[in-house]
Amino acid sequence: MPKYKAAAYIRLSYTDDRNSESDSVGNQRKLIENFTANHPDIELVTEKIDDGYSGILFDRPAFKEMMQAVTDGNINCVIVKDLSRLGREYIETGRYLRRVFPAYGVRFIAITDNIDTANENCGDDLAVSVKNIMNEAYCRDISIKTRTALDVKRRNGDFVGAFTVYGYIKSEENKNQLVPDPYASRVVQDIFRMRLDGASASKIAEELNRLGILSPFAYKRNHGFPYAPKGYGGAESCKWSATTILRILQDETYIGTLVQGKQGTPHYKIKEMEQRPTSDWIRVPDAHQALIDPQDFDLVQRIGDWTPAHRPIRTPYICSPVS
Q1: Which residues of the chain have pLDDT under 50?
Q2: How far is CA 2 from CA 5, 40, 116, in A?
Q3: Model confidence pTM above 0.90
Q4: Architecture in CATH for domain 4-142
């Protein structure tokens, strides 16, 4: 009867070469299955896969599921292709090897690195520490190269964001180029027209809701476009709000200026985004087709303190509502 109930843990980072077979999910699985087939004391009872997750952080869904199985006593052995699959952060990886796994009586095996904690002091030798340091250095190097490449793209006027601003979509020919969305761009133009006519943000929102115009959140969701729910005011009710209107009216993207780098992580080990000062934003004029004349945009910014105006709203030239 097998002494160890094992979990095969497989991780493939978004930075890994997807065309390389060496670190592919299939290769890692086959390597682990062949290993357990030759070790009758190990029974492979589960497989956990994190596809597209960096090894520098341990907040990965499949990894957490595996650790829950460990704490529940369902598995007492963890097998990976190599140490970098477990993690690339020196301190945290070492903590799992030296404290967490031993505390739960878990045997850890990294096949290609010849690490097996069933062998006494295997997790504490110099070779393991050196491998951990090298894995972290690799991750730091990749992070620097990625940040540099993205920064160059931004300064060249290439759009590198995951979500386009309402009114634009990514070009089918060039994913780094913004082009007007035929429908949403007209809604944006009418929002500016109504504001120039004296309507407040609240009045504009009310008018759009009355006409049945979908809010940015609802429009993108209904049409299958990528969206960030937290990026739109009134997203919960799927209605237009004054907050959303004001955000649109103050966005330089609509005059053809690509503004990027508003957010970022302070360190490659930290995944939480933080707001950067406006002086650090990267602005590239004439990066794409403008929806609003720059003079009209400047006039909207100079109208005042954005307090409500009570002039009647002229009927906007908005195309028929899209459900």
Answers
A1: 123, 233-236, 305-323
A2: 7, 6, 17
A3: no
A4: 3-Layer(aba) Sandwich (3.40)
